[in-house]
Amino acid sequence: MRVPQSHGTSRRTPVGANMTPMIDVVFLLIIFFLVSSHLARQENHLPLELPVASSFDPMDPEKMPLTISVDSSARILVGGNVIPVSGLKPIFADLVQRTGSDAAIRIRCEGRVQYQYVEPLLREAALAGVTDAAIAVREGVNP
User: Fold this and answer.
1) How far is 114 from 142, CA to CA, in rounded Å?
2) Where are the transmembrane segments (predicted)?
3) Model-level pTM?
4) Which of 10, 15, 28, 106 has the smallest C-beta neighbourhood within 10 Å, fewest atoms?
5) What gap in Å lies between CA 11 and CA 34, rounded to an integer?
6) What phi and psi, each to the nearest 5 degrees, are found at residue 106?
7) Nearest alpha carbon to residue 106 among 61, 66, 138, 49
C-alpha cells in the first residue's frame, strides 16, 4: 500500500492496519471449530451396544476418521443423519479428496447387526479408495 506524501505540510497522519476484519475471521473460526467438535462428539455418543472383543488395537489419536454408525435397525448414520447405502459414495469421495491416502473410517455398529448390513458400507469405502477401516468394539470377553 502506498502512503500518500503530503507536500509542504508538517502534519502527519498515522498509518495503521484495520484489525476489525481479522478479529471477525478469528471469531468465525472459533465458532466453526466449536460447532464441528460438538458434532464429532455427538456422533461418538450415539447409544449403540458395541460388540465385545477380547483384543483390539486402540484408536490412533492422530487420525480423525469419519465415524459411521449402524443402529439396531441396520440404518446407516453419518453425522447423526440416516444415509442410504447409495448416499455413501459422495461422502467417501469427499473424504478421499480431503484426506488423500490417509482417508480412514470407523464403523460403530450394534453387536446384533448382521454382517450383511455392514458389508455394503465396506464395499463402497473400498471402491472410493478408503483402505483404513476400523470397527469400534468395547473391551471384554465374548460371552
Assistant:
1) 16
2) 21-40
3) 0.56
4) 10
5) 47
6) -125, 125
7) 66
Under a CB-based contact definition with an 8 Å cutoff, are residues 48 and 76 in contact? no
Q: Are 122 and 134 in contact (CB under 8 A)?
A: no
Percent of the chain with pLDDT over 70: 68
Of 41, 28, 1, 35, nearest to 17 (Cα)? 1
For residue 118, which amino acid is it?
V
For the chain, the domains span 48-139
Percent pLDDT > 90 in the chain is 12
Looking only at Cα atoms, what is the longest distance across the chain? Answer: 92
Dist CA 128 CA 110 (whole Å): 24
Asked: is 48-139 a CATH 3.40.50.720 domain? The reply is no
Residue 139's DSSP bridge partners are 53
| pLDDT for 35 beyond 60 | yes
